[in-house]
Design goal:
By secondary structure, this protein is of the alpha+beta class. The protein contains five helices and five strands, in the order αβββααβααβ. Strands 1-2-3 form a three-stranded antiparallel beta sheet, with no helix packed on it. Helix 2 packs across helix 5. The longest helix has 31 residues. The chain is globular and about 55 Å long.
């Protein structure tokens, strides 16, 4: 009986090893021996991809630029949508302005994070959308703080300031949420 179990164990053994596939991806290679076959069978199955993909400068630049432009568009769409809803309410004009601003900020953050996530998901890579939203929110907070430092409580530039300086400040404020979302998203990149 012991001899029979030893023969059966020898005939029905399975070995698994990792091999290196093309492009640096590992695969599991199984060698199956069965009593009726008499020779090893080789089967390959993809192993779990645990490595982080390399950063591609073109992809990162695309994420940052698309996020910035989408954020600008999202600000206008969000402020128009929420502003039209605020017009239907019986609140003061100052409150309507604040509600419209908050709608614009929320629209800009959502559009920025969605654009960064969409560009980052092209091909065989993916990342975390909630993390991109968090990065956009952090960048937006830094932009709002910068706005408060430069303009004070007015939130808008004075008339005496040059248009070039306004453009530089607005561009920086538009890029900060996109940069934050890009950094946050790329910290969670992985293969699909």
């Amino acid at each position: 009986m012991t001899c029979t179990m030893s023969v059966c164990a020898t005939l029905c053994c399975t070995s698994v090893a990792k091999a290196q596939a093309p492009l640096g991806r590992s695969v599991a290679v199984g060698i199956v021996r069965g009593p009726s076959i008499g020779r090893p069978l080789f089967a390959t199955t993809p192993a779990v991809k645990t490595e982080c993909p390399e950063l591609e400068p073109a992809r990162v630049a695309g994420e940052a630029l698309a996020g910035a432009y989408a954020g600008i568009g999202g600000y206008f769409i969000g402020s128009m949508a929420i502003g039209s809803i605020a017009e239907l309410t019986n609140v003061s004009d100052a409150m309507k302005e604040h509600i419209t601003f908050v709608g614009g900020v929320l629209g800009a953050g959502a559009a920025t994070a969605a654009s960064v996530w969409a560009i980052g998901n092209i091909g065989d890579q993916t990342g975390s959308f909630p993390t991109a939203v968090g990065g956009a929110a952090a960048g937006m907070a830094v932009g709002l703080l910068l706005n408060q430092i430069i303009y004070g409580h007015a939130r808008l530039p004075t008339e005496g300031e040059s248009s070039r300086m306004r453009w530089v400040e607005a561009s920086l404020e538009a890029m900060l949420p996109s940069i934050g979302a890009t950094i946050a998203f790329n910290s969670t990149r992985r293969f699909k």
